Amino acid sequence: MIKAPYLLYLGSTVDPLAIKTSRGIAMFRPEDAIGEFVREGGPLSLGLPQMGFAEAAAAGARTLILGVANAGGMLSEELIDDCEAALEAGLDIASGLHARLRDEPRLVAAAERNGRRLIDVRDAGSDLPVGNGLPRAGRRLLTVGTDCSVGKMVTALHLERAMRARGIAADFRATGQTGILIAGAGVPLDAVIADFISGAIERLSPAREDGGWDVIEGQGSLFHPSFAGVSTGLLHGAQPDAIVVCHDPSRTRMRGLPHYAVPSLTETIAANLQVGRLTSPDVIAVGIALNTSSLAREDALALCRRTAEETGLPVTDPVAFGVENIIDRMEQCFGESLQSSLRSA
Amino acid sequence: MIKAPYLLYLGSTVDPLAIKTSRGIAMFRPEDAIGEFVREGGPLSLGLPQMGFAEAAAAGARTLILGVANAGGMLSEELIDDCEAALEAGLDIASGLHARLRDEPRLVAAAERNGRRLIDVRDAGSDLPVGNGLPRAGRRLLTVGTDCSVGKMVTALHLERAMRARGIAADFRATGQTGILIAGAGVPLDAVIADFISGAIERLSPAREDGGWDVIEGQGSLFHPSFAGVSTGLLHGAQPDAIVVCHDPSRTRMRGLPHYAVPSLTETIAANLQVGRLTSPDVIAVGIALNTSSLAREDALALCRRTAEETGLPVTDPVAFGVENIIDRMEQCFGESLQSSLRSA
């Protein structure tokens, strides 16, 4: 969908948090990130070679990635100028901003003039199928959560990387804007029409015959009153063999909903397995991913140990401690399947 | 949203099943249905006064209702001719057809010329809120189901009618095209963007202070792999005090999914109460509605009795036997609330 390699746009962005998508690409798709574009005086860098648009195109870049967040998600004049110049230099543009590239006439004209594409990753396709729930070949892991924004995407990306490092065929499947820009493809599930949620995931993660795994990025939470419908359809469409439950132990109330308590891990595991069994009768939990960034390292390790004792599952913070213990558990539970994907990888 | 009273369009429709929406309006909103439009030679009638468009407008009609289904959901030339004539006569047009009125230039021009409205009830609003799950005033009943198309709309309409007949303030809240045309307002839930499912229902059924009930039309089933996400978001947004479970005892496999068995009533009740408790901790089941149209009357009555013994709930076929036993149970469970709505009605 999005052609690699990429030039990552930082522009004159000042807030380090606003470039987290670009940072994610540099971290999880280093082979695709051949350079960064920084405006004169722009204070941020990802440590990549700094390039102009023509220079990047000459170096092989195919797409300028707008992996930046800005106030209101609007396209500034400066950003439009830069995008137009990138199109003239022969690059496609992919954007996760709320404002759509296709709504900016100057960019539409420049893209047409240069035979380049404008890719708004917040747009869901209009031809999605209704889910059918039919069993399909291949192994799938879904990251689920106690709440929104507890590390489901990052956990899925770490799992993909660690599985590949062991020689297991594994592919991250993105369901949100940031994940789509990192993966270069995916479905922005929050933009899909309600009747097509599970069908969109069935298409995103179709049958695979190579014995490998799809590692699907979860969204929301079965316990989030705003978004549980999305999480339910995603769980049914994913037909996961395995789930990994993500949790932020510093959070006591649901994101954006202070009148709702965060559910326990035990409740979250039980509910996801129960709902998941409708389309994947043998689904199991294989691990818990905690975001312990607010804790000292020793406290974080102690919390992982305690949580493992309470749940009987491998527990880790993927960013701090990796996900090897979860992959170990997967090898115990799916040994034969992991072996076969190893052979075919 | 849709202005009453209505002229119901039958045109030259031949298939009695194709006018079920118009039949529903005539049955559940008789005070709004002042006439029917039948083309010369058209074989069907709902027994209403037959009128031309000018005649209907003179009799007070405000809207022509296209409560017809046709092959492919397209607008035929004949239908467009008739709609244009109706607009010229001063009527709005409301349509549940898949093809949109707003996509037909002749109709757009005629509506503008005459200051009339074209209402496509399959269009969801673009300004829907995200659900917040905050407790809100008022009593709500939601019809849920073991499957799609098992009588959730018809049951809700019968409940509204029977509650009103007892002097209880009650309003049907529509979530599908047919229901919206019957009620004159509502939200076409299958067209809503995934992130806004529960928010759309919170807006459809806002806080009410008169002690009365909203009777909300359910959609899909928690056990339908294609649509359970919609049903989940609807259940959370509805915050129901009470659910009525609808079921077609002649069905053994899920609609459109022969590889999925229909769940039991016991499972369906338990799952809906469990999921529903997230936003409505005290939700209870108050009855079961069976579609017994495939059974002889005696067998239907026996099935209702047997199901009541098994579940401890009042069981009926709303069409064949009414819903008085369910309202009785509601009076037992919500006596004070029903009394207060009685006083305010």
From TrEMBL, chains A, B:
NCBIfam families in the cross-refs: DgcN
The record's InterPro entries line, in alphabetical order, gives:
DgcN-like, DgcN-like_C, DgcN-like_N, P-loop_NTPase
UniProt domain D-glutamate N-acetyltransferase-like N-terminal: residue ranges: 46-123
- At the top level of its lineage, which domain of life is listed? Bacteria
What name does UniProt use for this protein? N-acetyltransferase DgcN
Q: Name one Pfam family in it.
A: DUF1611
Q: Which residues form the D-glutamate N-acetyltransferase-like C-terminal domain?
A: 132-326
